[in-house]
Every structure is written in structure tokens, then in C-alpha cells.
Design a protein that fits this description.
This protein is of the alpha+beta class. It has six helices and ten strands, in the order βαββαβββαβββααβα. A hairpin with a 2-residue loop joins strand 8 and strand 9. The longest helix is centred in the N-terminal third of the chain and has 13 residues.
């Protein structure tokens, strides 16, 4: 019998059980907020600027060495984040204050680090994550906004939050979400487990909050399109459930704009001791829906890497 090959370290790679990072290399994590309206998504690009590139440049200046990062979920062009989580490996010994102040001094004004710290070798921003939570923000009034046009979506027709909540109930649980999956999604499986969908109104704002183990490409924005159709009274509340069962993307409405979408939280097992920050965006001022208790949540399986799409959502 051949021996099991010894694990070889690669920068930012998942460290197997029983292995450690090489001596002198440390694993760090950070929580990042960004306005995605001026970026071509999270991922580093050749033809245009992604958020990843500007964060790596700032971290590299603080570390005095080249830094690359891994995120919990890649967002697409125009999508924002208040709770994007990343990790990176470095030989630099820096405290949280050094990382935060140093990076923010070298980042553009539309990207900010809110937390940074040393992590265990086993932490991985993507593969350690148990769930991601998004919020979609809609300004629901007759007249369009003059402010924050790139941070929400204006919808002039009156929306019934009651009907939208009723419609969203069919989407909770583990299902094949092919009807809400973009054609370019590279995931090998369309099955995702939606933990909850919460829809609430704050004055003229309607917020759709959704948490799942992972998301398919454009999944949240396609779900929002279906819920808005119900909210306007164009379809009955059982229609999104029928789309789900039918698994036919061509029967579903158009993808909602990116400007209203925020990645607001990424959940990890408590053993990693990441901070619980306000989910945002700041003008919402409401904590996340307490659908899953901490004990129940920590018992959820992390799901295989096969379930992960090329994008967490976009």
C-alpha cells in the first residue's frame, strides 16, 4: 500500500486536520464593507478594477509583503457588502489596530476594513462558512430618489409586504433552485438550503433578507424579481413556489438590479470566535432575523465544496 501523500502548504489553502501552517506564517481574517457601484465585482480582473485588488494592495502595504486574499463569497458588478469576510496568510506580525488603521489609510473611500485579527490555522473564509445573509433594499414610493441611487432600487408601484412574505415561505428549506439560477452559474448542483426569508418595511423602504448555506449566481436577485411581481399583485403568492417546482428559468421574471443587494453577514462556527457586527447597511438599523438559534446553527453541516458556485451571489 502506498503512503498517504504529505500535505504541502499553499498560500491561503485549507489546512487539513492535524496539519499546521509553516513556522513563521500566520493566518489573519478581516471583515470588509464596500460600495460596489464603482467596481466590476469582487474578483480581481484584468480589464477593470475589482474590490479584491484594492484590498490586497492596501494589505500588502501594511504587511510589507505581497498579500493575496480569499473571500467568503464573490459579489458581482454593482453589489455591495457590509460583512464580507476574508482571510490571508502573512509573515507580518501586526495587531488588529495596525491592520485596520493601516489598510483604511490606503484604501479608497468606498472600501473599509471594520475588523481584523489573527485566526487559527484551520480557518478558511469560504470553506469554514456555514451561511451567508443578504439584504435587498427597495425604495417603495411614487417619486425616485435624489440620494443613494446606487445603494438601493426604486420601485414606484405599491408593494404588499404581506403577500411577499406569504410567497417567500415556499422558498425556505433545501430545494433545487434552477428556476432562480443564472445561465452562467458554474455550480455542479442547483440545490441550496434557504434558512429563512424575512421581508419588512421601514417607512418607504422594503427590505428582503435571506440566509442560506450558499447561493447560486444571481439567485437572490432572481428571487427578488419573483417576490416583487407578487408584491405588485401581478401574480398570486403561490407563484414563486410553482416556479421553484418547475425549475425553468425562462418562466421566471427578469433579474433585479444589483444596486439594491448587500452581503451583510457570513456565519461561522463559534470556535473561530469571529465578532458579531451590525449587519447593515447602516441606514437599516435592524438586527438579523433570529430564525436559527446559535446552538442549532452550530450543528448545521458546512456542506460540501461541490455545492459552491463560482459566485456566492451577484
Amino acid at each position: 500500500m502506498s503512503e498517504t501523500p504529505h500535505w504541502q502548504y499553499r498560500v491561503n489553502s485549507l489546512v487539513p486536520e492535524g496539519e499546521t501552517l509553516p513556522p513563521g506564517i500566520f493566518r489573519y481574517a478581516a471583515v470588509i464593507e464596500y460600495d460596489g457601484s464603482e467596481y466590476c465585482g469582487w474578483q480581481r480582473q484584468v480589464h477593470c478594477e475589482g474590490v479584491q485588488a484594492v484590498v490586497e494592495k492596501a494589505l500588502s502595504l501594511v504587511a510589507n509583503e505581497e498579500i493575496s486574499i480569499v473571500c467568503a463569497g464573490r459579489t458581482d458588478t454593482g453589489v455591495h457588502a457590509t460583512g464580507q469576510t476574508v482571510h490571508f496568510d502573512s509573515r507580518a506580525v501586526r495587531g488588529p489596530r495596525n491592520w485596520i488603521l493601516g489598510c483604511n489609510a490606503n484604501l479608497p473611500r468606498n472600501v473599509r476594513l471594520h475588523w481584523a485579527g489573527r485566526m487559527s490555522d484551520r480557518f478558511h473564509a469560504r470553506f469554514s462558512a456555514r451561511a451567508r445573509t443578504y439584504r435587498y433594499v427597495i425604495l417603495n414610493r411614487p417619486s425616485p430618489p435624489a440620494l443613494m441611487r446606487e445603494g438601493l432600487v426604486w420601485h414606484k408601484q405599491a408593494l404588499s409586504v404581506v403577500a411577499m412574505r406569504e410567497a417567500a415561505a415556499a422558498l425556505v428549506g433545501e430545494h433545487d433552485f434552477s428556476a432562480f439560477r443564472a445561465a452562467g452559474c458554474q455550480s455542479r448542483s442547483a440545490f441550496r438550503n434557504v434558512h429563512y426569508v424575512d421581508i419588512f418595511r421601514l417607512n418607504d423602504l422594503v427590505v428582503i433578507e435571506i440566509r442560506a448555506n450558499a447561493f447560486l449566481l444571481h439567485m437572490v436577485r432572481n428571487i427578488v424579481g419573483a417576490l416583487l411581481s407578487v408584491g405588485r399583485g401581478e401574480n398570486l403568492p403561490d407563484w414563486p413556489g410553482e416556479l421553484l417546482v418547475g425549475r425553468d428559468r425562462s418562466k421566471a421574471p427578469a433579474t433585479s438590479p444589483a444596486s439594491g443587494l448587500y452581503l451583510v453577514a457570513v456565519d461561522y462556527p463559534t470556535k473561530f470566535d469571529l465578532p458579531i457586527l451590525s449587519p447593515g447597511p447602516f441606514f437599516i438599523g435592524r438586527e438579523l432575523y433570529p430564525a436559527v438559534s446559535k446552538k442549532e446553527f452550530n450543528n448545521l453541516s458546512s456542506d460540501s465544496q461541490d455545492l459552491m458556485c463560482g459566485h456566492s451571489e451577484s
